[in-house]
Amino acid sequence: MSTALTSTKVGSLAADQAALFDHDGYLLLRGAVPEAWRDLLRAAFDAGVGTGEQWTAPKAPGWRYAQIDLDPTVRKTCRLPALLTVAAHMLEGPFFLAQVEGREPLEGGGHQPLHRDGAGLRAVAAMVFLDDYGPANGATRVLPRRLDTGEPDETLSLTLAGEAGDILVFDADLLHGATRNVSGARRRSLLLNFLPEGDRTAQDASRAIRDVRMDNGEVFIP
Fold first, then answer.
1. What is 6-221's CATH number, 2.60.120.620, 3.40.30.10, 1.20.1540.10, 3.30.470.30?
2. CB 167, CB 100: distance < 8 Å
3. Angle at the Cα of 177 (from 172 to 181), degrees rounded to 5?
4. Pick from 117, 124, 104: which is nearest to 169 by CA?
5. pLDDT tens-digit profile of 57-102?
6. Cα separation of 195 and 207, whole Å?
7. Which of 50, 104, 186, 191 has the fewest CB atoms within 10 Å of its CB?
């Protein structure tokens, strides 16, 4: 936590991307992470994996977790302009990076029911894929906002596929869930979220239980 806040100006999202995000509730940014960073991010993930005892709160079985929020390349990745402009478009006001951790579905694990990270919550989530991903190794599926009737409907969900370096950015209220990693191929990712600046005090109060170690004193200004 930082007692001295600093501000960073964020650019505007391109009109075509803004329309897609408003329509579907998510954007898939292909190849957004510079290629030179990807091995560094994978190494940071693997170095951050430990035992279950490293986490304050219990973690779900079937997953590998990594503490990576102090790594400099991870922190740069969370501040990529393409990512920040999507968050700025949705949040429409000052916001901050609340949390980032590493997650990977283990072989045979990873399946989640369609869910919302925060029903009615004003927040932006993002997944930075560190390995190629698809239906065989636990890729994320989403229910586009335009098809959302209010209830989870698996028949309408879309399973995403792509390459290392892609970033999925989505409204935290979007129905989504991981698929089962049936192949056992690695599918490491960074999971992060941005929240409005007005939520900072409440988030700071829960830093310890969420295992947040990073300085989060940067305010992003649309």
1. 2.60.120.620
2. no
3. 145
4. 124
5. 888 899 999 999 999 999 999 999 999 999 999 999 999 999 999 9
6. 14
7. 50
